[in-house]
Automatic annotation (TrEMBL):
UniProt signal peptide: none
Name this protein carries in UniProt: Putative gap repair protein
GO biological process: DNA recombination; double-strand break repair
InterPro entries named among the record's database cross-references: ARFGAP/RecO (IPR037278), RecO (IPR003717), RecO_C (IPR042242)
Cellular component per GO, a single term: bacterial nucleoid
PANTHER family: DNA REPAIR PROTEIN RECO
Domain of life according to the entry: Bacteria
Gene: recO
Coiled-coil boundaries: none
Organism: Serratia symbiotica str. Tucson
């Protein structure tokens, strides 16, 4: 929840009405509290909803270069402010057509599509966050590092 709150405070404009976003926020917090899915699933759903509310309209289902529908087996490279363009390059900005379809449907049936969603939302949110890292992410990383590998022995 801390991450979601920090994200909202960093990307939303002051004095702007985001009443509809509240329901996505509430759904995210309820899902996190219920622990029905991995927290990653709820967070990706919320980040995509947030981008939508910010007016970040991106077509996941068509190649921005040709206008053709994406092919599950092809690779597409994300270009900020343009969309996804068919490419032979495979890097951090590359997504398969299958991953793009999962993003469009906001359904992540496996770890590969969930990781792709995380990669995309980080890329898409970066301009809104500027160069300043999220404190909640730093805190989470510190907590993960401090957890012992084995439980302590009870004496």
């Amino acid at each position: 929840g801390l991450y979601v709150n920090e994200l909202l405070s960093r990307v939303l404009e002051q004095e702007t009405n985001y009443a509809v976003l509240f329901f996505d926020y509430l759904k995210c917090l309820q899902t996190l509290a219920a622990e029905e899915h991995s927290p990653e699933y709820a967070l990706r759903q919320f980040e995509l909803a947030l981008l939508n509310h910010l007016g970040y309209g991106l077509d996941f289902l068509h190649c921005a270069g040709s206008g053709q529908p994406v092919d599950d087996g092809m690779t597409y490279r994300y270009r900020e402010e343009k969309g996804f363009i068919a490419s032979l390059v495979v890097d951090h900005y590359s997504f398969t057509g299958r991953e793009l379809r999962a993003l469009a449907e906001r359904q992540f049936p496996d770890m590969a599509t969930l990781r792709a969603a995380k990669r995309f939302t980080r890329l898409a949110l970066k301009p809104y966050l500027g160069g300043k890292p999220l404190k909640s992410r730093e805190l989470f990383c510190q907590l993960v590092r401090k957890q012992p590998d084995t439980p302590p022995d009870d004496v």
